[in-house]
């Protein structure tokens, strides 16, 4: 069974007042040094876990790849990384806006395209193909009647409302599942408690009767 957006606890409010490390020195992201090489990671892709919204496709410059191997470093990336770690760039609400750990449709569409491009091994929603139906000739049916019928079948959803509604539904489903699970666990604990009380009472009664028989 695949994980969904509702299964992930995206953000802990303990980090509300914390600034995040956005980049180091001359680099637009975070360079990392190993024993024999160096790479980087892109904090912009982790902003949702830090409480900030992912609204759109990230700027390409923020996703720049940095990599070198020991002995193969013509750009002197190792030295530049060492110097970069002396200058840390942090961001918070002042630069990134209010906290809201959501991912909007433009960003998720970009993620789906990347997943398809790189053949990533997990399921992602595929767009439903639009089927174009040619006009039919119904001589006994008026234009107004056809229009009313078509309107009754159409779902007209405003894009912004659709995003908000989708997020609310995802959140409500997550908390409902959590509530149902806790309710079930509580019921199981109560049932186990009742069974244990009955067992102890039965044991006590049998011991009490045995003692009465002895005396």
What do these coordinates show?
The chain folds into two domains: 5-117, no CATH class; 158-214. Helix content is 43%, strand content 9%. It is built from five helices and five strands, in the order ββββαβαααα. A hairpin with a 3-residue loop joins strand 2 and strand 3 (37-41). Residues 154-160 have low confidence and may be disordered. Residues 1-115 form the DUF7745 domain.
What is the helix fraction of residues, given as a range?
40-55%
Rounded mean pLDDT is 77
Number of helices: 5
**In total, how many domains does the architecture comprise?**
2
Largest sheet, order of strands side by side? 2-3-4
Counting helices, strands and paired strands, the structural category is mainly alpha
Segments where pLDDT lies below 50 for 5+ residues? 154-160
- Total DSSP E strands: 5
Instruction: Kindly estimate the percentage of residues that lie in beta strands according to DSSP.
Output: 5-15%
Give the termini distance in whole angstroms. Answer: 63 Å
Gyration radius over CA: 30 Å
What summary fits the major beta sheet?
Answer: 3 strands, antiparallel
Order of helices and strands: EEEEHEHHHH
């Amino acid at each position: 069974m695949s994980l969904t957006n509702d299964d992930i606890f995206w953000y802990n409010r303990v980090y509300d007042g914390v600034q995040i490390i956005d980049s180091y020195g001359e680099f637009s992201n975070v360079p990392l040094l190993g024993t024999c090489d160096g790479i980087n990671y892109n904090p912009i892709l982790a902003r949702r876990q830090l409480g900030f919204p992912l609204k759109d496709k990230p700027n390409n410059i923020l996703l720049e790849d940095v990599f070198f191997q020991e002995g193969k470093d013509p750009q002197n990336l190792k030295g530049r990384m060492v110097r970069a770690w002396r200058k840390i760039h942090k961001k918070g609400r002042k630069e990134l806006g209010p906290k809201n750990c959501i991912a909007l449709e433009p960003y998720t569409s970009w993620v789906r395209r990347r997943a398809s491009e790189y053949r990533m091994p997990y399921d992602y929603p595929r767009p439903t193909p639009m089927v174009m139906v040619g006009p039919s000739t119904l001589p006994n049916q008026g234009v107004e009647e056809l229009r009313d019928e078509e309107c009754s079948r159409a779902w007209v959803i405003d894009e912004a409302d659709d995003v908000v509604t989708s997020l609310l539904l995802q959140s409500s489903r997550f908390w409902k599942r959590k509530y149902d699970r806790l309710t079930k666990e509580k019921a199981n604990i109560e049932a186990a408690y009742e069974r244990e009380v009955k067992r102890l009472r039965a044991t006590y009664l049998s011991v009490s009767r045995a003692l009465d028989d002895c005396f």
